[in-house]
């Protein structure tokens, strides 16, 4: 009877900050879908079935992790009650407000706006206040419990002698379908330091582009974007330790080009044949928080043009690494030509 009354899921983490830093990587959507399994928690955010972000909080991130798969019976079955109760349902899934969960995890001031994009800033920049971990010498713990389907997700935070309990409403699962990505037929695979790609996306965003074009050949990887404000190109050479960033802004018909050196160092470079595809820039821009927290990023594309960005993030507490995955559906037809059309109209004016 005690086992029957125990919650479906309960876990304790010694670092609410680590959970916050991982989940904020997919904070572009108002709701996230949560799937609980024996291996951990999978959080998935999506936008219009063309952008998907996923964070997996594996059980190793928690000091204790207990999961009891909910049992269900088949009403029309002729089996006995005991046999029906032995039937195990699929892993439970529900939706939750992602902003509310993030606000809860940082309720003790685990992050500040200035340090939001720097997961190691707490130790690196010397910033401390009266409530920082370095001053208090403690690490806020986090307990997460989900009793059963229909119940709220209960988050209990403890810091020193203060305990805060928050019940977050759960919703019916979102109508999400994973964006298909064929790992067996890759036309592009590049592994590089995340900071290089972060700098490249930041540089390209200066022209406020609508789309990002990713072009690869057996010798180089090129990211380009353009708008009425100008154009920018970032090129990484396969055999070079430096990437060449070429920027050209054009607002009045006169080009103003500058070239500067940026770090390249592509650890893995596999492009069997030329590849070129465009993606919505704002979608790719949503991954900047993950890029800022990650140490490495794997850039992959399959034969359908679906882009996958997988970020490796080093865990602050206890070592190890976690992964955040993004998938992007490419622009097709008129979508890909929309930016060029806008530029031509601006030039005619």
From TrEMBL:
Coiled-coil intervals, chain numbering: none
Subcellular location: Nucleus
Domain of life: Eukaryota
Name the UniProt record assigns to this protein: Rad1-domain-containing protein
Family: Belongs to the rad1 family.
Keyword Nucleus assigned: yes
Keywords assigned by UniProt, alphabetized: DNA damage, DNA repair, Nucleus
Keyword Nucleus recorded: yes
GO cellular component: checkpoint clamp complex
Region annotated Disordered, chain positions: 242-262
Biological process (GO), any one: DNA damage checkpoint signaling
Native organism: Tothia fuscella
């Amino acid at each position: 009877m005690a086992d029957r009354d125990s919650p479906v899921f309960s876990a304790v983490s010694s670092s609410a900050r680590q959970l916050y830093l991982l989940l904020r990587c997919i904070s572009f959507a108002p709701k996230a879908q949560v799937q609980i399994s024996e291996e951990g928690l999978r959080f998935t955010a999506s936008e219009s079935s063309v952008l998907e972000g996923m964070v997996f909080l594996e059980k190793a991130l928690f000091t204790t992790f207990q999961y009891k798969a909910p049992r269900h019976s088949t009403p029309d079955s002729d089996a006995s009650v005991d046999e029906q109760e032995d039937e195990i349902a699929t892993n439970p899934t529900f939706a939750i407000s992602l902003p509310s969960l993030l606000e809860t995890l940082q309720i003790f001031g685990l992050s500040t706006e200035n340090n939001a994009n720097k997961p190691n800033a707490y130790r690196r920049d010397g910033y401390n206040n009266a409530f920082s971990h370095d001053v208090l010498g403690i690490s806020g713990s986090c307990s997460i419990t989900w009793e059963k389907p229909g119940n709220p997700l209960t988050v209990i935070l403890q810091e020193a002698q203060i305990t805060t309990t928050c019940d977050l409403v759960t919703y019916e699962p979102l109508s999400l379908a994973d964006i298909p990505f064929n790992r067996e037929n890759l036309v592009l695979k590049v592994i590089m330091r995340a900071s290089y790609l972060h700098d490249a996306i930041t540089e390209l965003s200066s022209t406020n582009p609508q789309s990002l074009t990713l072009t690869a050949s057996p010798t180089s990887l090129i990211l380009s974007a353009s708008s009425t404000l100008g154009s920018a190109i970032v090129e990484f050479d396969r055999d070079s330790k430096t990437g060449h960033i070429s920027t050209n802004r054009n607002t009045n018909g006169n080009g103003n080009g500058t070239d500067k050196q940026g770090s390249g160092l592509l650890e893995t470079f596999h492009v069997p044949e030329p590849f070129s595809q465009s993606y919505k820039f704002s979608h790719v821009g949503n991954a900047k928080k993950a890029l800022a927290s990650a140490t490495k990023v794997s850039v992959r594309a399959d034969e359908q043009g679906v882009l996958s960005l997988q970020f490796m993030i080093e865990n602050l507490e206890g070592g190890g690494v976690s992964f955040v995955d993004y998938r992007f559906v490419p622009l097709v037809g008129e979508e890909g030509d929309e930016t060029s059309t806008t530029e031509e109209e601006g030039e005619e004016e």
